[in-house]
Amino acid sequence: MKNKFKERINKVFLTLGTASATTSILVSEAFAAGAFQGADLSKNMKSGALRLITGAAGIIGLIWVGFGIFNLIMAIRNEDADGRNKAILNLVAGGVLSGISVVLGWFGIS
Questions:
Q1: CA–CA separation, 41 vs 89, rounded Å?
Q2: CB–CB of 93/66 below 8 Å?
């Protein structure tokens, strides 16, 4: 029962993380290619959409990291090697996802 619940939560976080990261990349590429040039409204829409997407990616990533920490603690406690590997993978994926918003901010994209 617990394993099915953990697997479902992992799938939800993986889906949300992948969707927000992909959307962030696609939107930034579309705006960088000049798809919305000319109007001030498009610039405001661009900055608002990018802030929303990168903010959501950062929040989802932090939640994912928290979930990974919890899973890592439980796996170490139960001496579960497979669970430990999955928890470390969750930590890395959550860190990468939450780091997307930081990196995009460094380059002035968001």
A1: 40
A2: no
| pTM (predicted TM-score) | 0.58
- pLDDT tens sequence for the chain (110 residues): 567 777 777 777 777 777 776 666 666 655 555 555 555 555 666 677 777 778 888 888 888 899 899 989 999 998 888 889 988 998 998 898 888 877 877 877 65
User: Could you give the C-alpha distances from 13 to 45, 61, 90, 93, 110, in angstroms and in order?
Assistant: 27, 9, 9, 10, 23
What stretches of 1-110 show up as alpha helix (H) in DSSP?
2-32, 40-78, 81-106
Q: How far is CA 80 from CA 5, 61, 85, in A?
A: 17, 24, 9
For the chain, the farthest-separated pair of C-alpha atoms sits apart, in whole angstroms, at 59
